[in-house]
Amino acid sequence: MKKDFIMPILVLSLVCLFMSGALAVSDSITRPVIEEASAERALAVKKEILPLAEEFVLLEVEGLPKRIVEVYGTPDNQGYIFSITTSGFGGEISILCGIDPDGKIIRSVVMSHSETPGFGDRVFVAVNESEEKGEHFDAVAGATVTSNAYREGIQDAFAAFEIIKGVQP
Fold this sequence. Notes:
The chain has 169 residues and is of the alpha+beta class. The protein has a domain at 50-164. It has 3 helices and 5 strands. The protein has helices spanning 2-49, 119-133, 144-164; strands spanning 57-59, 68-73, 80-87, 92-99, 105-113. Strands 1-2-3-4-5 form a 5-stranded antiparallel β-sheet, with helices on both faces. Helix 2 crosses helix 3. The longest helix has 48 residues, at 2-49.
């Protein structure tokens, strides 16, 4: 009776141990590739936002709003790019937002999100269209939490701009 009880537990434990090891090896192989691809995409988006900038320098600034993860400046004072992480209805939203030296939004790009396909995408399109027209953006019906999260992230970028304006890399 003990053998019938202990053997399945032992086998399942060994299977779990093996699978955990296989996942750890897989992660160690794929993580650097994924991080490199992500960094390349972020650089490409930064160049879309500030096409005349030749390089982007990470600025070390204290006291930024909590949603601001990183701030990049350009040595030739083309503007600033704010890396924003905010929480929407479906989870984390990662945004890059460019602001010119005069404090006007250039463009914002959603790098990743966990929002409901369709609703989340409608929010991001609506926000970008209103930014291009210089209009105030309220919310998209049915996606208020996502709309608010996006808007608050952009507001934090403007607050961070007020803290760092004039800082040169």
